[in-house]
Specification:
The structure holds 2 protein chains of 2 kinds. Chain A is mostly beta strands. Helices cover about 0% and strands about 50% of the residues of chain A. Chain A contains no helices and 11 strands. In chain A, a hairpin with a 5-residue loop joins strand 4 (about 30-35) and strand 5. In chain B, the strands form 2 sheets. In chain B, strands 2, 4, 5, 9, 10 and 11 form a 6-stranded mixed β-sheet that branches. In chain B, strands 1-3-8-7-6 form a 5-stranded antiparallel β-sheet, with no helix packed on it. The chains are: A mainly beta, B mainly beta.
C-alpha cells in the first residue's frame, strides 16, 4: 500500500540550479496537489491537477512548473532555484475535488537552497 | 479568502494529561479535516467532520465541529508520547477548491 511516494526526501541545491521533485500515487486518484510548508506558515498550494494533461496554478506558483502526463505521476520542476524556495514540499492526491476522506499526502521533500 | 486560525501554536503537556486544540475559520465551515504530522513524515489523516455538531473519536482523540461558531476542537484524553507532533486543521476553502490549512499546533508530551 504505497499511497503517495515522493522523492527525494532531502536535497540541497545551489542558487540557480534546477531540479525535479517526483511524486507518484498508485490509488488511481484524479486530483493531485503540490504544497509547500514553511515554518509557522502552514501549507500553501503551488500547483494542482484534476487529471492527466490538466494542470493549474495555486496560490504560490512563481518559480515552479508542473506536468501531468499520466494519472500516476505529478512532478514539480524548479528551474532556477532561489533561497526563497527553501521549504518542505508535499505532494497530495484525492479521489475528487471535494476531498471526501481527506487528501493522501506523501512524506515530503525537504529542500534547502544555498 | 477563508483563513483557519489554530490555537495554541504550541503545547507542552505531561503524559497522562488531557488537552484541547482549537481551529477557528473566518468563514462558514462545510468540511473540516484534522491531520497529524511527525517530523520527516507526511500528514496523516485523522478525521473529517462535515455536519454541525458532529463528533468523531478515534482511540483517545475526539474531534468536534461547531458550525455556528465556525470552529472545531480536537481533544486528546490521557496524552501519551506517541501523540506528540504537529496537528493541522484543513478546510475546503481554497479558491481552486483545494484544502486550506491552519498553521498547525505543535504538541510535545513529556514522559
Amino acid at each position: 500500500n504505497a499511497g503517495v511516494t515522493q522523492t527525494p526526501k532531502f536535497r540541497i541545491l545551489k542558487i540557480g540550479q534546477s531540479m525535479t521533485l517526483q511524486c507518484a500515487q498508485d490509488m488511481n486518484h484524479n486530483y493531485m496537489y503540490w504544497y509547500r510548508q514553511d515554518p509557522g506558515m502552514g501549507l500553501k498550494l503551488i500547483y494542482y491537477s484534476v487529471g492527466a494533461g490538466i494542470t493549474d496554478k495555486g496560490e504560490v506558483p512563481n518559480g515552479y512548473n508542473v506536468s501531468r502526463s499520466t494519472t500516476e505521476d505529478f512532478p514539480l520542476r524548479l528551474e532556477l532555484a532561489a533561497p526563497s524556495q527553501t521549504s518542505v514540499y508535499f505532494c497530495a492526491s484525492s479521489y475528487s475535488s471535494g476531498p471526501v476522506g481527506g487528501y493522501t499526502f506523501g512524506s515530503g521533500t525537504r529542500l534547502t537552497v544555498v | 479568502s477563508q483563513e483557519l486560525e489554530q490555537s495554541p501554536q504550541s503545547l507542552i503537556v505531561q503524559e497522562g494529561k488531557n488537552l484541547t486544540i482549537n481551529c477557528t475559520s473566518s468563514k462558514t465551515l462545510y468540511g473540516l479535516y484534522w491531520y497529524k504530522q511527525k517530523y520527516g513524515e507526511g500528514l496523516i489523516f485523522l478525521m473529517m467532520l462535515q455536519k454541525g455538531g458532529e463528533e468523531k473519536s478515534h482511540e483517545k482523540i475526539t474531534a468536534k465541529l461547531d458550525e455556528k461558531k465556525q470552529q472545531s476542537s480536537l481533544h486528546i484524553t490521557a496524552s501519551q508520547p506517541s501523540h506528540a507532533g504537529i496537528y493541522l486543521c484543513g478546510a475546503e476553502g481554497g479558491s481552486q477548491g483545494n484544502l486550506i490549512f491552519g498553521k498547525g499546533t505543535k504538541l510535545s508530551v513529556k514522559p
